[in-house]
Amino acid sequence: MTSTDQSPQTRADRATAKRMRRFDNPWLNPKLIWGASLLLFIIALGILGRFVWNLDLVFTGSTPLKLPPVGFENLRRQEGVWDYPLGTDGGGRDILALIIMGAPNSLFVGMLASLIGMSVGITLGFTAGFVGGRTDDTIRILSDVMITIPPLLILVVFQAAYGDVSLTMMALLIACFVWQSPTRLIRAQVLSMRTSGYVQMAQLSGASTPHIMFREMLPNLVPYLFGSFIANVTTSIVTAVGLEVLGLGPQRIPTLGRTIYEAINAGALIQNLWWWWGIPTLLLAVMFIGLLLINLGLDEISNPRLRKLS
Amino acid sequence: MRLTKMVMLASAAALALTSGAALAQDVAREDTVIFDLDRTIKDPGNFNWFTSGTKRQHGAHQAMWEPLFILNYETGNLDPWLGTAFEPNGDFTEWTLSIREGVEWSDGEAFNADDVVFTVNMALGNEELSQREAATIRGQVAMVEKIDDLTVKFTLQNPNPRFHVENFGVRIFGSFLIMPEHIWSEVEDPATFAFAEPIGTGPYTFTSAATNRAIWDRNDNWWGAKTGFMDLPEPLRLIWLETGGEESRAQLMASNQIDAAQNVTIGTFEAIQARNPNVIAWHNGYPYAWPDPCARQLEINTTVAPWDDANMRKAVAHIIDRNQIVNVAYEGTTVASQTMFAQYGSMAPFIDAVVEAGYGLPASADVAAGQALIEAAGYSMGSDGIYEKDGEDLSVDIHVNSASTEYTRTIDVVVEQLNRAGIAARSVPVENGVFWGEVLPFGAYEMSYSWLSCSSVNEPWASMTRYTNHSVVPVGERSPGFNNTARWNSDAAAAYTAIVDEMGGLGMGDPAIPAMVAEAYQYLDAEMPFIPLVQAAKLLPYNTTYWTGWPTVENNYNHPAFWWNHTHQIIHNLEKAE
């Protein structure tokens, strides 16, 4: 505080100028940029990797077993080789191929589940908030009931009974459990917006309900929806990875969670095969940090009060 | 006043609880042997071993219920236990059992011919007693009678030179266990009786059980010590503990929290040994593992299209590369199967006969031959690399027990091989209890991974008779004793059955048998109701920190599979480590 008081005028000017620039373009938020770069890195890994790496190595028995990454040695004193730069797992699969295939798969499940969940949530939330009455009661009670059900419990039972599922199927299942919060949040926002002047004006001028909902009100909710979307992606990925780590995800399609499951199941910890579980875990961490940063960034954009002033 | 009373009562209860807990823990670790249990005890209060579930291998038939005889895998002899002799008549249709004198149930009642006759009759008269051993007795025994207190005569339906080993000799996993007549005779329905307070003749009595463990304490009043049959075993307490997967099994072993562990992969074993040099296995060096007599195979439900076509089954057999299974799933600790039989020295004459007749299976794949058979069945390769017919992909679900990495990884390899050859195979992992309780016996699968031809260790009939058409039941009904779960019921199966039935009447060592095996095997080879994969190898870590005397190739009083009924021998051989 004292330092601000004593600082020369020019510095204060510069700070003001910086603040003004920030206000000019709130999307140039460092957190947002960092988060997006981390996610883009994973997406790029998935896309570019497909062109430069032999993805057949992702299947059981296509490589020697338990080789370490280049520059390391395993318990049998075998050294890593450049053919499999990140090492191989106990089933003869290349770790690099696994993450090239697996990381985008995990992200895909999260995105798809969240996209479906959000679409349902937006529609229901707007309908409940705007139409009101019986419709509102029904939707509100439905989402309140659903929000109390722990998704992992239901999904574990479902997948254990069903055996193998595809990625899309898994995303659909998870989507069944991620629409409630957006529904509730959007309904609340819509309720407060409904009484604002521009909405009433639109109503008076005879605009249709969908028009008011989606053309007048929705644009004002965009940053807010983005934040909610990203939070949902995180939840969906956590749920998907949780299922995979329990061995309940897709069987033959590589995912990060399944790789961790197999590592744990095959005694990778005691055999010191750290690359088998460590690399997928690291990628998941990168993914979550990326999503968190994006979420924080979006929060600052939609809520200027959170923006730092210096 | 009231409040003080309640507080006092509560504290008294708490005290009782804590002292109770102390009682349950008053056996020192060095007096306790902790065995690994690879499954959940679904119904810990049920000890009715005649019905399916985990009712024996959590200590009940290793510590409490003793067998009549124990087949010694190392000497080939039948070691006497509760029985002393089992003599056939000239044509193997009557068998006379002599029971050891002085055997007692743990409640003090005498164990005698009445118990044997009662238990056998109970199995004979009750179809609901579905366990394999009871079903086998029903299929073989015509009549059982008491001669005197220590002698029982069995009259068989058909001549059977192997009757004693097969039913009472712990040849594979278990034996027909005799139950106390004075308890079971009071029971209305033996199929639903829980036997919640079990007793046996063994040196340990039941203390407590939960879904993840069973505890047994030594009975210092054991009959065997009193009669001089054997000394009391040294451990005061035995615990069977569910450990979960390979990782937790390995960590518990490395930190001396269990004394005997279920199968682990060789990499894990080496890692355990690196952390705990007291851990040993059957062999002192590579490959460490003991060759288990239950060779692994791909079970096929022959009633489900397209696998009801023998050529389609043969195609799968051609596509499978056994060497890759050995290298990836077993990390080189086993070998590919040539036939359905365990590759023991004692089985060599029969395996050789089959191989010489040209029915031996190759260790490597012939994918082109397999694909030719699939194409001959009307399939054509689709653009996605999967065969299709009438717009439908050629696909198969393979059920696999998720209890062990060995099982799931073998099927991962098979699934991969089939997919690359154009069959959209998919692994369906199911929980141990569901796998054995629902999937296999009722034929609720297309293909599955198991070892259901397991039985023979020194003669071929026991395994071969498991696939005769006598055991065929419709899908949805329980296969008797897991026999012919493939539901193989063609003309070839009938021809096969005729030869195997004829073989059943021949004495062990009859020179005609190898040729008959080869003759019968032509039908298995032509129709492939199941596909033999690899020999099984069990790498069982034993911990010598607290206990020594574990079975090893040097100290080979019997084999090391401590979930079998012969574990009595292991427990009697254990000595406290210095």
Automatic annotation (TrEMBL), chain A:
<keyword id="KW-0813">Transport</keyword>
<feature type="transmembrane region" description="Helical">
    <location>
        <begin position="32"/>
        <end position="53"/>
    </location>
</feature>
<feature type="transmembrane region" description="Helical">
    <location>
        <begin position="274"/>
        <end position="298"/>
    </location>
</feature>
<keyword id="KW-1133">Transmembrane helix</keyword>
<dbReference type="GO" id="GO:0015031">
    <property type="term" value="P:protein transport"/>
</dbReference>
<dbReference type="InterPro" id="IPR000515">
    <property type="entry name" value="MetI-like"/>
</dbReference>
<keyword id="KW-0653">Protein transport</keyword>
<keyword id="KW-0472">Membrane</keyword>
<dbReference type="InterPro" id="IPR035906">
    <property type="entry name" value="MetI-like_sf"/>
</dbReference>
<keyword id="KW-0812">Transmembrane</keyword>
<keyword id="KW-1003">Cell membrane</keyword>
<feature type="transmembrane region" description="Helical">
    <location>
        <begin position="107"/>
        <end position="132"/>
    </location>
</feature>
<dbReference type="InterPro" id="IPR050366">
    <property type="entry name" value="BP-dependent_transpt_permease"/>
</dbReference>
<comment type="similarity">
    <text>Belongs to the binding-protein-dependent transport system permease family.</text>
</comment>
<dbReference type="GO" id="GO:0005886">
    <property type="term" value="C:plasma membrane"/>
</dbReference>
<feature type="transmembrane region" description="Helical">
    <location>
        <begin position="221"/>
        <end position="243"/>
    </location>
</feature>
<dbReference type="GO" id="GO:0071916">
    <property type="term" value="F:dipeptide transmembrane transporter activity"/>
</dbReference>
<dbReference type="Pfam" id="PF00528">
    <property type="entry name" value="BPD_transp_1"/>
</dbReference>
<feature type="transmembrane region" description="Helical">
    <location>
        <begin position="152"/>
        <end position="179"/>
    </location>
</feature>
<protein>
    <submittedName>
        <fullName>Peptide/nickel transport system permease protein</fullName>
    </submittedName>
</protein>
<feature type="domain" description="ABC transmembrane type-1">
    <location>
        <begin position="103"/>
        <end position="295"/>
    </location>
</feature>
<keyword id="KW-0571">Peptide transport</keyword>
UniProtKB/TrEMBL annotation, chain B:
<dbReference type="GO" id="GO:0030288">
    <property type="term" value="C:outer membrane-bounded periplasmic space"/>
</dbReference>
<feature type="domain" description="Solute-binding protein family 5">
    <location>
        <begin position="78"/>
        <end position="467"/>
    </location>
</feature>
<comment type="similarity">
    <text>Belongs to the bacterial solute-binding protein 5 family.</text>
</comment>
<keyword id="KW-0732">Signal</keyword>
<dbReference type="InterPro" id="IPR030678">
    <property type="entry name" value="Peptide/Ni-bd"/>
</dbReference>
<dbReference type="GO" id="GO:0015833">
    <property type="term" value="P:peptide transport"/>
</dbReference>
<dbReference type="GO" id="GO:1904680">
    <property type="term" value="F:peptide transmembrane transporter activity"/>
</dbReference>
<feature type="signal peptide">
    <location>
        <begin position="1"/>
        <end position="24"/>
    </location>
</feature>
<dbReference type="InterPro" id="IPR000914">
    <property type="entry name" value="SBP_5_dom"/>
</dbReference>
<protein>
    <submittedName>
        <fullName>Peptide/nickel transport system substrate-binding protein</fullName>
    </submittedName>
</protein>
<dbReference type="GO" id="GO:0043190">
    <property type="term" value="C:ATP-binding cassette (ABC) transporter complex"/>
</dbReference>
<dbReference type="Pfam" id="PF00496">
    <property type="entry name" value="SBP_bac_5"/>
</dbReference>
<dbReference type="InterPro" id="IPR039424">
    <property type="entry name" value="SBP_5"/>
</dbReference>
